[in-house]
């Protein structure tokens, strides 16, 4: 159940990014509501896999850059991974496009912040006494 909630939260964060930023597009105007929901779900899964597999490797290899830039290198990594997700989505014939690296940078910030806020409202675990 927690996995489905995480996918839904990530999908909602991607929807918010596409709604706020004109350089990010998910689906076409001809797509039905359910087509867009399906696209958001697949994008969220791709994003989760990319973050789970590549991000730790990049963080380990780029540890010096993280320290040198006081963590700002993480923004570049997140934007690059965002662009990678857009490319992978295209390979699966999904309509998810990011116009350029600047939009990917802004999109990754929106997705990170939106996911963080939604996770504050919907915590992973309920505290028990």
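Q: What amino acid sequence fits the structure above?
A:
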């Amino acid at each position: 159940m927690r996995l489905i909630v995480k996918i839904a939260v990530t999908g909602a964060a991607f929807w918010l990014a596409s709604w706020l930023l004109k350089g990010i597009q998910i689906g076409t105007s001809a797509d039905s509501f359910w087509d867009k929901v399906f696209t958001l779900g697949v994008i969220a899964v791709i994003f989760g896999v990319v973050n789970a597999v590549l991000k730790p490797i990049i963080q380990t290899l780029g540890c010096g850059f993280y320290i040198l830039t006081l963590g700002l290198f993480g923004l570049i990594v997140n934007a690059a991974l965002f662009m990678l997700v857009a490319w992978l989505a295209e390979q699966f014939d999904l309509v998810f496009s990011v116009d350029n690296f600047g939009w990917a940078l802004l999109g990754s910030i929106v997705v990170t912040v939106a996911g963080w806020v939604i996770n504050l409202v919907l915590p992973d675990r309920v505290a028990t006494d």
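Q: And what stands out in the fold?
A: The chain has five helices and two strands.
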